[in-house]
Amino acid sequence: MSQEKDHMDYAQDLDIAARPDLTISVLGTDVGSLLGHGIPLFTIGGGYLRSALSQILVNFHARRGYYIAETPIVSSGALFELSGHMGYYKQNMFVFQVEGKEYAVKPMNCPFHILIFLSEVTRHRNKVSLPFKVFEVGRVHRLEPSGSVYGLLRSRSFTQDDAHIITLGKDAVNVITSVFDEMITIYSKLFNVEMNPSTVTLRLSLSDKSKIGTDFMGTKDEWEKAEDFLRGALEAIASKYGLRYTAAEGEAAFYGPKIDVLVKLGSGQEGKEWQLGTIQFDFNLPRRFKIFDAAKELYGSEDVYIIHRALIGSIERFLGAYLDNYKGRLPFVLAPLQFAVLAIKAGDEFDKRVEDFALSLHRALVAKGFRSGYGETTRTSLSGDVRLLESGPKPAAIVYVGRREIEKGSVTVSIYEGGSRRQTSVNASDPLGAADAIESLASRLEEPVKEIAGMVPRIPGDLSYQL
Ligand SMILES: [Zn+2]
């Protein structure tokens, strides 16, 4: 009896990540014991996917006024003392000693982004305007309890599509609303997930009043002011988009209240709700990093906040949820294997022609920047081979080249789109012509990403060895 696949099976099938129980034959050891509990190993397909996704996210944010950052993974513990992480979050951090000094692996990107802001205003004074927005595809490490660690869904090493916005209080509602617009754009245009009242719920996560000063940093007055403010912003968003919202006490981050965005991935009864995006409101870091003082001097107002936000949250977690709910089907732009070109061989006489045509077409697709694999099959085994591809690397498109196709001057392309495969024929008097025709089919699938990011990353690869 076959068991239902889970996201790590899909991740391995698509060559995105290795299952931790994969035993490396020559070493006689499994990947998980070498990497450590909760540290995923992304493999070749995952490398392509992550690079493409990062390029899209960087361009998307840069076009919307965010500055782009890339900050260290490890730093002196002094930075995290200043930010309060050592006081409130140390149990979740990897902390170690070097040369008699304490160092930490970053669990969050915020302190670095704030330091970038302070460094800019130190040098350029009030020429640096607010809101000041910094974005990073930021890798963080957190010591999650070992019992809760699971595959990509909850790992100890993960990557946030993270940004911090330093804003005056008077602009904060506008900032939060535009962050929510960005979230909707990414989900719908990049991942084909529509955000509407039936798929999205907002949740306001508040402090537990009895734990302010112990689990939650700051004073009761500060929390009340911030929570009232965020409630107002949440109501504005909920009514603008017609969304439902709930409130949850004790679920806030230690530095401030937040809006969590719960999104249903997958369709119909199989769909499942995930907590993905987040917008957090922070009055603690501005105080600790003396941003109140800097803002008063430079902008004439102390009414300033830091907003932490992530649109999909963690790339690993989002990917795990997406693979689970869409059974390993990724959007064309992110698919590790975009094309499988199959030469259908039958009868010796024409086989060489078929092979040459299919190989040239495959190479032309790689030259255009696509990830493609070349494989061979026969008419009688064709459907079985396609089933194998579908249950394995799941190419976004399968291209069939056989004797009949060459003689007719057309090849068949089967593209996965909107939940099913669609077959179409393209004119193909020669391999380069066929590659041009296939490229224009692909361009249509790339269009929504181009629209929001101003570009489409084409990271080519010959992945024939995976077929
Ligand atoms: Zn942050």
UniProtKB/TrEMBL annotation:
Similarity section: Belongs to the class-II aminoacyl-tRNA synthetase family.
UniProt GO BP: threonyl-tRNA aminoacylation
Top class in the EC scheme: ligase
Keyword line: Aminoacyl-tRNA synthetase, ATP-binding, Ligase, Metal-binding, Nucleotide-binding, Protein biosynthesis, RNA-binding, tRNA-binding, Zinc
Domain Aminoacyl-transfer RNA synthetases class-II family profile: from-to ranges: 49-331
Catalysed reaction, written as an equation: tRNA(Thr) + L-threonine + ATP = L-threonyl-tRNA(Thr) + AMP + diphosphate + H(+)
Single Gene Ontology MF annotation: metal ion binding
Taxonomic superkingdom: Archaea
EC assignment: 6.1.1.3
Protein name stated in the entry: Threonine--tRNA ligase catalytic subunit
SUPFAM superfamilies: Class II aaRS ABD-related, Class II aaRS and biotin synthetases
GO cellular component terms, semicolon-separated: cytoplasm
